[in-house]
Amino acid sequence: MKVVEWRGKPVWILRRTPDMLASLPKNDDKVADPHSDKVYQLPMPEYCKNETRSRAEHKEVLVVVGICSHLGCSPSSRFAPGAQPNLPDDWTGGFLCPCHGSTFDLAARVYKNKPAPSNLDVPPYMYLSDTRIVIGKDEKGDA
């Protein structure tokens, strides 16, 4: 995972493994908004309205604003699956907000019955090449 700054906020760029991607469908019934219909601060880009919440041509790459939708803390990565402190025994990997315990899967979707009301935001972004991303701009223009 790489962290960059956009509009003064951390943006996470995470390259997910095939195992990480395979874990996402297992969480659909556990997350509060599996299809990212609920807006937090940014409207969901149409090209990321899918289970991986990423562009189809690079579905392994997640790009999200690393700010919890509860009170604005920055969750920490908890990628290792399995039981861990403050996490369920069937944890498949994701993010844990240390402030109030909200948990997010590897597509940054919030689990049900947590303080955070929404998934983490996906900013507009586009690929300049297979290895370069611009955040805050896409085919529709600047955000």
Task: Give an account of the 3D structure.
The chain has 143 residues and is mainly beta. The protein has a single domain (2-142), classed as Rieske Iron-sulfur Protein (3-layer Sandwich), CATH 2.102.10. It has 1 helix and 10 strands, in the order ββαββββββββ. It has one helix at residues 18-23, and strands spanning 2-6, 9-15, 61-65, 76-78, 94-96, 103-104, 125-129, 132-135, 137-138, 141-142. A 3-stranded antiparallel beta sheet has the order 1-2-3, with no helix packed on it. Strands 4-5-6 form a 3-stranded antiparallel beta sheet, with no helix packed on it. The longest helix is centred in the first third of the chain and has 6 residues, at 18-23. The radius of gyration is 14 Å and the shape is globular. The two termini are 23 Å apart. 30% of the residues are buried. The model has no long low-confidence stretch (mean pLDDT 92).
Keywords:
Rieske Iron-sulfur Protein, 143 residues, 1 helix, 3-stranded antiparallel sheet, globular, mainly beta, single chain
Short structural summary:
Helices cover 4% and strands 27% of the residues. The protein is mainly β.
The third-level CATH topology is Rieske Iron-sulfur Protein
The CATH architecture assignment turns out to be 3-layer Sandwich
The CATH homologous superfamily is named: Rieske [2Fe-2S] iron-sulphur domain
In total, the number of domains comes to 1
Overall mean pLDDT stands at 92
Number of helices: 1
- The shape is globular
List the strand order in the largest sheet.
1-2-3
Reported for the largest beta sheet, the result is:
3 strands, antiparallel
Strand runs, count? 10
Q: What structural category arises from helix and sheet content?
A: mainly beta
* N-to-C order of helices and strands: EEHEEEEEEEE
Instruction: Supply Rg.
Output: 14 Å
Helix content: under 10%
- CATH classification, class level: Mainly Beta
Question: How much beta, percentage-wise?
Answer: 25-35%
